[in-house]
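During data preparation, we tokenized the protein backbone, and the record follows.
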Amino acid sequence: MICRQGGRSMTRSRLFGSLKWTKNATSEAVGTRCFRSCLKQPLFSRLANTIPKTSFPSMELQSNQWNSSLAPSSDTDDDDHYLYDPVVVENGTAVAITFPSHDSTDESIVSIYHAPWLWSNDPTFVVPSAGQKLRSPGDYRGSTIQSVSIVTAVEALEENDPGSEIVIPVPPPLQGSAHPVASMYRSFQESQMQPPSEDQLILKIIWNPETDIETTMPHVSYYDMNWMECWRYDDQALYKRRNRTEVTKFNAIRAIGPDGNDTIQGVDYTRLLASIDGDDDTDELFHLLHALFRDGAVIIKDAPKITSGPFAPASVVGHAIGGSLSHGNLYGEVFHVRSQPNTNNVANTNEALRPHQDLAYYESMPGIQLLHCIHVSPNQEGGDSTLIDCMAAAHEFRRIAPHHFSTLVTCPATFVKQRDGANMTYIRPHIVLKGGADMNDLNREIVQVNWSPPFEGPLCLQPHQVVPYYEAYAAFEQMINTMLEPNQRDLSISKYTDFAREYTWKRHLEPGELLVFNNRRMLHGRTAFSYNVDPSGAVAEHSQDRHLFGCYTNIDDTLNRYRVLLSKQHGIPSSILSVSNGTTIVP
């Protein structure tokens, strides 16, 4: 077994080699250096292949905290108890637990849990039916840990009277749940009818009564071990979590190839409607949401061309995935996209639309956009719809142009919508990174991209930032916009233009197709269009009617709908890609 920290690996024999397996472990243990590394190394200070190698001074191991029941002996073969090897460290201010790596290397990792973290997540101080905490992290007053051990669920229940106020997480929390108990779920009542599992292992913490003065209750806490492992926060766990959520070009929809096969998954509207009504075994609604949050977009086929009333397909689907429609103040809950004179929106012209997000001047722009193609004239030339994954583009931009990437992270843009009845501005950077110990570290996870050239106003930057901003802006636009004129594209920097060529989805929407996409992750656009004329010079009858019908849903409500459906099918999910809403999805 190996403890791997800070880019180094330490075998179990080296980690614990000089420790005597008794309750009184000496502070000169070789492994103390590894525990110090676990405690002190920055949580996320590198990308996949860049791990700082930092040495730390030795630390003192709590001298009386080895639980003899966990030590190897001739009269026990309880491998599960022995595997976790919990030990109190840093003078009672933390616990170290050894977890298996769950890969093919037969290695393990030592993870540290600090006393404030354990104290704040004590299952006893959670409202059973709701999940909300009764304790605030601000209430912590330095309680320290006296001892730690692993017990089975049966043993934990036997240790406490049935009327005890101490909460033991039996049955265990649902897979991936952020709550340390399961009592807020309906399935909890059914599970209570079953006897506790001998396989469920519980971490038992006994607090030092001299420091745990906040409560008059017994100074003991119980935590499900699977839940503890799910919420590890050592470097390896954070790195794996980031790998599961960060969008890269390997997750992006690609351009349609020479074979003409569409690269966006299709969903049948009739089957979807049956799924929404609850009588479809294939669960097309789940498949739609799964493709939407995996790929960024999905196309619904053969939707009837209805544009009013409760049976309009865009409205039906919007309500099904988001609970309600959103962002209806400026253009209405549903809107029409067609060429009109003197319009207050550039979308209602026949001009090209650069790749952009809608309503970027909102504090919370729309999450999902639905565009239903009602009619396209056979005489129309141009008018292709486009999509490109801006999260994947930003990830690649950091790799090939880190100096420009830094500029778009640190220089905010001004997004604006001002006209009769609208006066909205919002200042935010184009690329947003996850918070971290070092806010100057540009290798932090990308959690949001904001890009909407038609709706950008004057910059509010310091003078020395202005020229670098426009240079960085031009470079990123090369990556995401295939519609730039030849004299606007710097063909000498193919590292930018190649991405746009390979990852821009582009084609006509056909009548009856309903395009559903993540407005925060996918930039959408349109090529300019016009109409053919007959030899007399007259425009063909009914040609001026390219018509799309659309609406929006809120990202939070739609994501919640997906996660609830996903939990019903596979347990609470642990690997949903970032949706570009400024955060990552945990666990």
Q: What stands out?
A: The chain has 16 helices and 24 strands.
